[in-house]
Amino acid sequence: MELRQLRYFVAIVDHGSLSRAARVLHIVQPALTQQLQLLEQELGAQLLHRSAQGMSATDAGKLFYEHAQAILKQVGDAKSAVAQSALRPTGTVALGIPQSVSGALALPLLMAVREKYPEISLQLTEELSGNLIEQLKSGRINLAVLFDDGQLAPFIVKPMIEEQMMYITCANSRFAHLGTSIDLAAALQVPLILPGYQHGVRPRIENLVRHAGLAIGDVIDINSVAILKSALLADMGATILPVAPLLSEIERGEMIALPIADSHISRTVVLCASKNIPLTNAASAVERLVLEVAQTLCDSGRWLGASSLM
């Protein structure tokens, strides 16, 4: 198996056509077809469906595509690591950020990278944390912002933020609470809009409520941050969440966040790298900058409800 065969296969999947892939790769189509056939023979599996509409990956092809992408990225990282200067890092760095953190961290980080390391191309991936863990394990991303749930042993973990969860409603909501804080029992009396159980936030809330001897009543389960925002703005209920995913709406005055006075609900945000795949100079520079930006956001109060662990 050759690296060029991996590049050829990825190009065919990306472009959905042998002819289009051949044009992009600057090779003749018969040569591309031959290399694909050799690859399928070596793997003992059909990787692509061929039809009048083009080409698409089989189940085996989809699995191989993920590995091929990871291998090609690691080869590119290795070349960059040799070519880079530690004082002037260059290259591409892929960083994964959960949807519920990107609202606070993504834009400040992008601006900081462009200002301090203009020769680094930062690729931000916004995903559920479970997807980011798999991508970090396979080497498809260099770094990931994750939540410390005690299951991060495969990674090098650097604590960043302790993020407080708050009671959040739209401004002038019928579920708004007078005062500067709210008790947990009072927060549980209103319809709550919460992420599903596959999100790390939900089990933390459920466990705290159970330990307090209380119960959650009416819950609207929504896994999309965008839809959850819309439901809050439509005054369908309140939520208990970290501020980060709703930071823009709170800063604009569209939503209000109150601390829960008698209960401490929080999550620990960490920065992770693989123990098995070394970071390039560019990735190490971005790693340091992520920690610096998070520290600055905490110190300035721009990341509401967050305290630094650095």
Automatic annotation (TrEMBL):
Residues 1-58 form the HTH lysR-type domain. The keyword Glycosyltransferase does not apply. Keywords: Activator, DNA-binding, Transcription, Transcription regulation. GO terms for biological process: regulation of DNA-templated transcription initiation. Pfam families: HTH_1, LysR_substrate. InterPro entries: LysR_HTH_N, LysR_subst-bd, WH-like_DNA-bd_sf, WH_DNA-bd_sf. GO terms for molecular function: DNA binding; DNA-binding transcription factor activity. The keyword Hydrolase does not apply. Belongs to the LysR transcriptional regulatory family. This is Transcriptional regulator. It comes from Solimicrobium silvestre. The lineage of its organism: Bacteria, Pseudomonadati, Pseudomonadota, Betaproteobacteria, Burkholderiales.
